[in-house]
Amino acid sequence: MAKHRLEQPDRGKVAKKAVIAGSITFGSLAAVAGPALAAPVTVPNVGTFELPGVDTKQIPAQFQQQKAPVVKKQDVAKSPDATVEIPNVGKFTLPGISDNQIPQQLRPRGGAPLLAPTQTAGEKAVRAAETKIGAPYSYGASGPNAFDCSGLTSWAFRQAGLTIPRDSYGQLGGGTAVASLANAKPGDILVFNGGGHVGLYIGNGQFIHASTYGVPVKKDVVKNWSLVGIRRY
């Protein structure tokens, strides 16, 4: 009597379809599924894909669809590259990823690049003044190698693209008045000694100034000086 072998379903074809649909394979998906089935499978931190020819019951619980949108093959084909925007880092293009797979908080919002935040003229002036810490004091000098008090502040603002009065009394009379040190922002000009001395506020109760002969440009503490006015340019 001829022996008959039991025909087994072609499991390889089902698994192959799963690989083509979502580039994902699961050991438990090899069972035979009925026709016209398509089960959504969710990959954490990636997205949700439809696997044709697979029953939803075959999908492990940790990969079953929850609230993530289904990313269909035709959607990915229309948008093969997605852009993500990481706060304080920048924008990146992810090839082969649909925009639907990008979390809302990482989707580009447009506008200025995060790597180049907008700075005020005062903030730019502070950055410029900081590069001159250690430069010698010289009366009447306004840089780039030596400074007096108002010479340093006016030079720093020129580097920020803004021209302000050259002398300390002129700087006291210009700009916009700031009510108190508690309201001061980096880049505000602090006026001391009745208007005879100025410095550039850098925050946290400190400022940069060129004080007198023999003392180079340095950071100092505001409370150690007699503050009479604050001007914002």
What are the SSEs and their pairings?
Blueprint (H helix, E strand, L loop, with lengths): L10 H12 L15 E6 L3 E6 L17 E2 L1 H6 L2 E6 L3 E6 L25 H10 L18 H11 L8 H6 L2 E2 L11 E4 L4 E7 L2 E4 L8 E4 L5 E6 L1
Parallel strand pairs: 2-3
Antiparallel strand pairs: 1-2, 4-5, 6-11, 7-8, 7-11, 8-9, 9-10
Helix pairs in contact: 3-4
GO molecular function, one term: hydrolase activity
Family: Belongs to the peptidase C40 family.
Protein name: Hydrolase Nlp/P60
Explain this structure.
- Mean pLDDT is 77; it is low at 1-9, 11-35 and 111-116.
- This protein has helices at 11-22, 73-78, 121-130, 149-159, 168-173; strands spanning 38-43, 47-52, 70-71, 81-86, 90-95, 176-177, 189-192, 197-203, 206-209, 218-221, 227-232.
- It has a 6-stranded antiparallel sheet. Strands 1-2-3 form a 3-stranded mixed sheet.
- The protein starts with 10 loop residues before the first helix and ends with a strand.
- Helix content is 19%, strand content 23%.
- The chain is of the alpha+beta class and 233 residues long.
- Strand 4 and strand 5 (90-95) form a beta hairpin.
- It is rod-shaped and about 85 Å long.
- This is Hydrolase Nlp/P60.
- Belongs to the peptidase C40 family.
- One of its GO terms (molecular function) is hydrolase activity.
- Residues 119-233 form the NlpC/P60 domain.
- It comes from Gordonia jacobaea.
